[in-house]
């Protein structure tokens, strides 16, 4: 078994990407795209004049980073650059573990040599498709502005690239400056459609078989609706691929770790704890830039809550598992409450700003969070008896919310319960808002879904103050660019963004020279993986024989005494092949009873064994090797 | 090992479906229904048969599986969990879990309210019972415990109906529940994988009927309804809140839309409207056609349907009313009493009506007539009566198709009437050659099951299995032409056919210590059992006539011999190294020993001009060895000259 990490990824929106060679088959795990690299481009300008003023002010090396230093061109998109080095035709299977993990898939499937089978959960495939369609729709704005793209755009010329500020170069060439590669023009809507035809969709825990040898099942990972971890079984053993997972998420079904128990090998690919450390550094940069940020001390809050809840919820779990203690800690509800607290904080701040006459702009790309937040905001507005409209502006808003309402099977227990009891999951997307509940009939919920900022219905219904949810979190695409330009000077308005986003660079184009952005920014960190303490408990519970960790966790594992564990482990680095031995030397074989019954065996007393000559037909089916009576001539 | 199958209900009968299957020591209860035809203890399956001695159901059953929310499949579940005390896992699909409480509550109100004489269940019991349920999604493989695996497949009968696959060790079976092999207005057709099964337990409601296209029947229904409302009549459709109501509503709503009818359609109880809410979020469980429209308009948002107020019973003008329950009692009876005497009105019977119900009486009635309600109250029935002729059950063809597709080793028929079952059993046994049974209630069947023996296999063995073993067959083109003339014209069968018949050959080693088994190739055997190789060898020290041998040196003789052999056996690989000649296992060299044990010459004195060549070979090359030896013996002088 060979494992190669192609990319460690970067947070929630850019999951890692690996290649696994197992039983003679090559599996690509996820095919993401780095959308945060869009930050090097300038959003579509309002009027074309600034471009002309942006003449190359020849080789100013210590030119400070400002709005004008961004690249004014139709953006290209950064794919996993190491994937380009692999021959596409040798990939047999692609496993998608989240909607974000398939954003780069059309680049691959449009290659005529591509012949692999792609597996994704039904919901990840659908949401992923909507996200890709939305991206293509948003990119259209650039196309309309700049016109058709040429083979080698001006900005990609060497001296152009060389004259860019260091911050942008870092993104373009990678942190190590290793190389400028993997920048592709965006796929078309037709590419997305073709790509989806090649995706085979599965339910959670549905077994699927590739070539009779590999059995693969997806189990909920809790990160986002439809996201999953994979379990791959071949006759020589089983492998569990653990991507970023959340134990008790707000919307998605919780992390189904029990189904991964007793896998021989675990490929640990949750980088969230490392990214958290990175975030901390990025934070310092942000404070250097002259923005006003509100902060909220999650740390104290969370440790207090987790203390409370580990005690409160012990009785909740009646599990006869041997590792009872561990499962209590993993499944505790503290994560859920903590995340809910964050949403409540966003809600209460939003209400405060609206009361002051400002509007709230929320460009968050996590659908689970958005759906919950819509819910919370609606309740909060109702409690305050405020008639403030909520606008969801996106080309796929309507479809996405309608879809979220018909997949109760894929949601967390709390929402499933609600569906079972009341026949509805989310308020967003309910066509008749007034019918929600008897006690709420008085207040009409003003929630509108619009495909675009310029749609006629939006213009007629528009009123401020309001709350707007819209893409894209990179601040380079979509309705958010227009709305931010409108409100960036308003000190009473609030912008809610994720901690993961590099706010300094993201908001750069919206800060006119030398003037601070007046709009307030709330940066909120959402949980996007397994915390380090929990990963330790998790692995103890899963009882694997071998674990492959990312190199970044080496130090942590040393400190935490992973050396005393029951399993062996190794580490992997980007673009480095790791050999993982099969835990079994021999593969399993089932022999039909009829066949065994007709055997004539001889006993070797000395060796305490019997031997018999065996003759039959080998059948490989559903990942099991079977020896059956052959049709002898 | 065997599968033990105990039928507690729906054996040669329709009602209280309940089958206990014991596979390799794991007991599973499939369905837990009530019989709506009985009011006494016969209503419930006889649970005491499950565990004759202990009476602890939680220990005797591994799990309960409910296929769909109809009362004859789920009705006794709250009784079994709350009164009988079963506390183990229960599995059903998401829609069944969501809708079952509505059905159960409806039934409880209807039957138990006001009667406290026997063991019953309350609203709280239903809620408590549902809490124990684990909801499953289609095709999800659930590991109930270490050995038992279950999986649901789409059955199409009602929303959320599923067939269940269960596997313990190497034995596997499918319990179909009720299913429909053709898609209807809102649900798709049943779907299942090709599985290796020992047993299929299938319903057989329509074991002998064959149905034509349902579109014809739908049109017929619409025509009857349209004629009635056009004539100013009222249409009463007594139905259960779930399933039928939504299907008919879709048909009517669609028709109203197309024909622009303005006649109101009412739903009697808020119950049905609430049920519609569920249907809206469960749209993924309906047919593909319905699913595709969900973003533009949820098809369960009926445009022309409104809820009914009791005061509207007397309102003039035509209307269509869906009233619960289906067999006409309670509210639907109230409406029926008022509307039946008017010949303009129409009553549509939607499904199976139990004996003794008014529904059953109407099925056989020919209006105008007079039927007896309870307490000797007579009612004039002048309205038209229409019996819906489409049903969400599969017909005989569907059952046959499914059984043929799955090709199990055994079939058991349940949920049907005995005479029809007997006929179907005969067809299955004769046409498909699968043994088929139709046990009565409380009967136990024993069915043999497959078992496999686990072993580990070495890589070399698996590699050897992969060696292709092609066979080439020549077919006679004349034979084909007799079989199918027209296809032969288009595409000629190739004359040479290649078939592959791979054979796996190896050795099975069983350790007596722990009965662990291992399969290896012959070559690996020695390593595995740790002994030395004993090989049988032949040897012969052969005298060769060789003039002047004393004066010549041995190596030149060697060259002569080698040259001779190479010419004689051009297709063999002859090696000549260090005075030894090797041909496969044949090894030969000069023998200088005076008394070689392999010599057959009588005299031990050295004969003039003769040298001895000592040869050895193993069994397999015996023929070759003798050929080589005879060649050497006939060595002529001419050979010498050539060198």
Structural description of this entry:
- The complex is a heterodimer of chains A (633) and B (643).
- Chain A has 633 residues and is of the alpha/beta class.
- Chain A folds into three domains: 2-32 and 80-149 and 185-270 and 529-579, Metallo-beta-lactamase, Chain A (4-Layer Sandwich); 338-524, Rossmann fold (3-Layer(aba) Sandwich); 590-628, no CATH class.
- Chain A has 19 helices and 28 strands.
- Chain A has a seven-stranded mixed sheet with strand order 9-7-6-3-2-1-24. Chain A has a seven-stranded mixed sheet with strand order 10-11-12-13-14-22-23, with no helix packed on it.
- In chain A, strand 6, helix 2 and strand 7 form a beta-alpha-beta unit.
- Chain A starts with a strand and ends in a 5-residue tail after the last strand.
- The model of chain A is unreliable at 51-60, 277-325 and 429-443 (pLDDT under 50).
- Chain B is of the alpha/beta class and 643 residues long.
- Chain B folds into four domains: 2-210 and 392-448, Metallo-beta-lactamase, Chain A, CATH 3.60.15; 214-387, Rossmann fold (3-Layer(aba) Sandwich), CATH 3.40.50.10890; 453-477 and 494-534, no CATH class; 537-642, 2-Layer Sandwich (TATA-Binding Protein).
- Chain B has 20 helices and 32 strands.
- In chain B, the strands form seven sheets. Chain B has a seven-stranded mixed sheet with strand order 6-5-4-3-2-1-22. In chain B, strands 7-8-9-10-11-20-21 form a seven-stranded mixed sheet, with helices on one face.
- In chain B, helix 3 crosses helix 5 (123-131), helix 4 (94-111) runs antiparallel to helix 5 (123-131) and helix 4 (94-111) packs antiparallel against helix 8.
- The longest helix of chain B is centred in the first third of the chain and has 18 residues, at 94-111.
- Classes of the chains: A alpha/beta (633), B alpha/beta (643).
- The interface between A and B is large, with 58 and 57 residues.
- Chain A: It is found in: Cytoplasm; Nucleus.
- Chain A: InterPro entries: Beta_Casp (IPR022712), Integrator_9su (IPR027074), RibonucZ/Hydroxyglut_hydro (IPR036866).
- Chain A: Its main location: cytoplasm.
């Amino acid at each position: 078994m060979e494992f190669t990490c192609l990319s460690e990824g970067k947070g929630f929106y850019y999951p890692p990407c690996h290649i696994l060679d197992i039983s003679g088959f090559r599996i690509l795990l996820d095919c993401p795209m780095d959308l945060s690299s869009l930050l090097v481009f300038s959003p579509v300008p309002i009027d074309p004049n600034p471009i002309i003023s942006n003449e190359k002010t020849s080789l100013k090396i210590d030119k400070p980073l400002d709005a004008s230093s961004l690249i004014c061109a139709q953006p290209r998109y950064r794919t996993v650059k190491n994937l380009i080095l692999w021959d596409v035709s040798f990939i047999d299977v692609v496993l998608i573990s989240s909607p974000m993990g398939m954003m780069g898939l059309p680049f691959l499937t449009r290659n005529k040599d591509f012949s692999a089978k792609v597996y994704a959960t039904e919901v990840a495939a659908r949401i992923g498709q909507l996200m890709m369609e939305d991206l293509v729709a948003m990119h259209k704005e650039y196309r309309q502005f700049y016109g058709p793209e040429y083979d080698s755009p001006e900005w990609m010329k060497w001296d152009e690239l060389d004259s860019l500020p260091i911050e942008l170069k870092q993104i373009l060439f990678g942190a190590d400056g290793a190389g400028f590669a993997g920048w592709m023009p965006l796929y078309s809507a037709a590419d997305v459609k073709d790509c989806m035809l090649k995706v085979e969709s599965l339910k959670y825990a549905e077994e699927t078989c590739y070539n009779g040898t590999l059995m693969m099942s997806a189990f909920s990972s809790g990160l986002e609706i439809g996201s999953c971890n994979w379990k791959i079984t071949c006759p020589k053993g089983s492998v569990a691929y653990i991507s970023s997972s959340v134990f008790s998420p707000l919307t998605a079904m919780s992390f189904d770790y029990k189904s991964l128990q007793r896998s021989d090998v675990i490929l640990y690919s949750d980088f969230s704890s490392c990214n958290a450390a990175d975030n901390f550094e990025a934070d310092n940069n942000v404070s250097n830039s002259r923005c006003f940020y509100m902060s909220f001390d999650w740390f104290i809050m969370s440790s207090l809550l987790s203390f409370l809840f580990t005690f409160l919820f012990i009785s909740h779990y009646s599990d006869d598992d041997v590792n009872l203690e561990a499962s209590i800690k993993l499944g505790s509800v503290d994560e859920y409450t903590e995340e809910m607290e964050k949403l409540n904080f966003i809600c209460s701040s939003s209400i405060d700003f609206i009361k002051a006459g400002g509007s709230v702009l929320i460009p968050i790309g996590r659908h689970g969070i958005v759906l919950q937040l819509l819910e919370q905001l609606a309740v909060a507005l109702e409690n305050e008896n405020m008639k403030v409209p909520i606008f969801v502006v996106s080309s796929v808003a309507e479809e996405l919310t309608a879809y979220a309402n018909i997949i109760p099977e894929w949601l967390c227990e709390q929402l499933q319960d609600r569906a079972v009891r009341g026949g509805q999951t989310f308020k967003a997307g309910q066509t008749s808002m007034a019918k929600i509940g008897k006690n709420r009939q008085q207040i009409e919920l003003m929630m509108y879904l619009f495909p675009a900022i310029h749609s006629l219905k939006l213009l007629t219904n528009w009123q401020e103050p309001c709350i707007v949810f819209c893409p894209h979190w990179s601040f380079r695409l979509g309705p958010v660019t227009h709305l931010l330009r409108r409100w960036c000077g308003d000190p009473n308005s609030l912008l809610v963004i994720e901690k993961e986003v590099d706010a300094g660079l993201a908001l750069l184009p919206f800060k006119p020279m030398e003037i601070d952005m007046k709009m307030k920014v709330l940066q909120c960190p959402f949980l996007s993986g397994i915390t380090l303490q929990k990963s330790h408990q998790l692995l103890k519970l899963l009882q694997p024989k071998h674990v492959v960790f990312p190199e970044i966790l080496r130090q942590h594992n040393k400190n935490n005494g992973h050396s005393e564990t029951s399993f062996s482990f190794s580490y992997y680095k980007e673009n480095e092949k790791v050999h993982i031995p099969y835990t079994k030397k021999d593969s399993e074989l089932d022999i039909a009873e009829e066949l065994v019954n007709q055997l004539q065996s001889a006993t070797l007393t000395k060796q305490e064994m019997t031997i018999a000559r065996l003759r039959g037909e080998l059948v490989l089916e559903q990942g099991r090797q079977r020896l059956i009576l052959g049709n002898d001539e | 090992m065997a599968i033990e199958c105990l039928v507690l209900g729906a054996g040669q009968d329709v009602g209280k479906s309940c089958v206990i299957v014991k596979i390799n020591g794991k007991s599973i209860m499939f369905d837990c229904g009530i019989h709506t035809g009985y009011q006494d203890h016969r209503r419930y399956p006889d649970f005491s048969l499950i565990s004759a001695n202990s009476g602890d159901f939680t220990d005797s059953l591994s799990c309960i599986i409910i296929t769909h929310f109809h009362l004859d499949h789920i009705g006794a579940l709250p009784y079994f969990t709350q009164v009988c005390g079963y506390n183990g896992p229960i599995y059903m699909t998401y829609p069944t879990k969501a809708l079952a409480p509505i059905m159960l509550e409806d039934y409880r109100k209807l039957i138990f309210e006001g009667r406290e004489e026997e063991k019953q269940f309350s609203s709280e019991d239903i809620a408590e019972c549902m809490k124990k349920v684990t909801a499953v999604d289609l095709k999800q493989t659930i590991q109930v415990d270490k050995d038992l695996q279950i999986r649901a497949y789409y059955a199409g009968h009602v929303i959320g109906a599923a067939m269940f696959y269960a596997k313990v060790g190497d034995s596997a079976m499918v319990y179909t529940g009720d299913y429909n092999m053709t898609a209807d207005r809102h649900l798709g057709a049943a779907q299942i994988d090709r599985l290796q099964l020992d047993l299929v337990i299938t319903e057989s409601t329509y074991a002998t009927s064959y149905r034509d296209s349902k579109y014809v029947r739908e049109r017929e229904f619409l025509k009857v309804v349209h004629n009635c409302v056009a004539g100013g009549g009222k249409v009463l459709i007594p139905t259960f809140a779930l399933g039928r109501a939504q299907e008919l509503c879709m048909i009517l709503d669609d028709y109203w839309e197309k024909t622009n009818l303005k006649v109101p359609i009412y739903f009697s109880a808020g119950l049905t409207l609430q049920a519609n809410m569920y249907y809206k979020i469960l749209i993924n469980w309906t047919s593909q056609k319905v699913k595709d429209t969900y973003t533009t308009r949820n098809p369960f948002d009926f445009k022309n349907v409104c809820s009914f107020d009791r005061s509207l019973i007397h309102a003039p003008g035509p209307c269509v009313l869906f009233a619960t329950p289906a067999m006409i009692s309670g509210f639907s009876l109230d409406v029926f009493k008022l509307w039946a005497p008017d010949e303009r009105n129409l009553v549509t019977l939607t499904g199976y009506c139990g004996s003794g119900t008014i529904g059953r009486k109407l099925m056989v009635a020919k209006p105008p007539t007079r039927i007896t309600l309870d307490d000797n109250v007579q009612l004039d029935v002048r309205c038209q009566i229409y019996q819906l002729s489409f049903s969400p059950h599969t017909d005989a063809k569907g059952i046959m198709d499914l059984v043929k597709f799955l090709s199990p080793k055994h079939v058991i028929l349940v949920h049907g009437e005995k005479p029809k079952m007997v006929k179907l059993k005969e067809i299955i046994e004769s046409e498909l050659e699968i043994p088929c049974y139709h046990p009565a209630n409380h009967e136990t069947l024993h069915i043999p099951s497959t078992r496999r023996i686990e072993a580990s296999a070495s890589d070399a063995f698996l590699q050897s299995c992969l060696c292709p073993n092609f066979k080439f067959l020549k077919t006679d083109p004349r034979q084909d032409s007799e079989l199918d003339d027209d296809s032969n014209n288009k595409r000629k069968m190739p004359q040479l056919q290649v078939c592959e018949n791979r054979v796996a050959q190896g050795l099975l080693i069983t350790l007596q210590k722990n009965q662990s088994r291992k399969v290896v190739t012959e070559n690996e055997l020695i390593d595995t059992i740790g002994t030395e190789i004993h090989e049988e060898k032949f040897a012969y020290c052969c005298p060769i006539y060789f003039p002047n041998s004393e004066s010549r040196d041995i190596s030149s003789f060697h060259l002569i011999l080698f040259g001779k052999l190479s010419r004689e056996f051009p297709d063999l690989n002859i090696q000549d190294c260090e005075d030894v000649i090797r041909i496969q296992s044949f090894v030969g060299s000069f023998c200088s020993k005076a008394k070689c044990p392999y010599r057959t010459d009588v005299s031990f004195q050295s004969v003039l001009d003769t040298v001895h060549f000592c040869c050895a070979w193993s069994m397999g090359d015996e023929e070759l060895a003798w050929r080589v030896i005879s060649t050497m013996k006939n060595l002529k002088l001419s050979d010498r000259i050539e060198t």
